[in-house]
Amino acid sequence: MISRSSKLIGISCCRKLFGVFGMLNHAASDTYVRAVDLVIGGVPVLIPANGDRSHVDTLLDRLDGLILTGSRSNVAAVFYGGPPQPPDDAPEDPERDRVTLPLVRGAAARGLPVLAICRGLQELNVALGGTLHQRLQDLPGRIDHSTPMQPHAPVRTGKAHHVTLRSGGRLARIVESNLLSVNSLHNQGIDRLAPGLLVEARATDGTIEAVTGTGPGYLVGVQWHPEYDFEHDAASRRIFESFGAAVNKAV
To answer: pLDDT digits over 79-95, tens only?
Structure first.
């Protein structure tokens, strides 16, 4: 058991319907909470997707680190000037976006450590001025990055393709490798990279799979899900360990 610190780690939630009556809930996967508990050793704080009612400055005053979670929902196209999303695509969650996008901008301005995962990577890029491809699988030469419709979790979240990391880059130093096998559960992906971000990894089809901030603070985004296998995958664990080290070093 690792020692528990008093560091507060924000974990972004989504709006989801649960139960037989489809009641609206604010939810984040237990995998993120476990990563905070078992690797970072901080106190997980779930951030509701309550849109404009969120007190972003209060959260930024209190939090010591921020994890932007993955989700089935897509970043709403209105926030990056994209075309309306086809009705049969994954749902949008604009109330989450109205919380996370200003949180990202505020965290980046304050130097608050940020770890952005899957949808979180896309939020990071949009918040700082970038754009997204809505459906990577429709682009010529791209592989299908979307979630396998497979009920068996080890298959659904297992390794799907390789990513090549920037040699000598920040993420390569964190995971101690220039090549990783990663899972893949997304439709959207980075189109125009936001100012202030640097590409750290690409998939075999050229899709941007990881970024870091160009400033001095900890700002790391990965398109895959290290929270699924950090308990037995060394590279995934190192990502959370590096985030935890940044949180515990921050004043």
So the answer is: 999 988 777 777 889 99
The residue annotated as part of the active site, out of 118, 133, 200, 209, is 118
Is 118 one of the catalytic residues?
yes
Whether residue 1 has pLDDT greater than 60: no
Q: What is the DSSP string of the chain?
A: -PPP---EEEEE-EEEEETTTTEEEEE--HHHHHHIIIII-SEEEEE---GGG--HHHHHHH-SEEEEPP-SSBPPGGGTTPPPPPTTSPPB-HHHHHHHHHHHHHHHHHT--EEEETHHHHHHHHHTT--EES-GGGSTT----SPP--SSHHHHTS--EEEEEPTT-HHHHHHT-SEEEE----S-EESSPPTTEEEEEEETTS-EEEEEESSSS-EEEESS-GGGTTTT-HHHHHHHHHHHHHHHH--
Residue 162 known to be catalytic: no
The question of whether 227 is a catalytic residue gets the answer yes
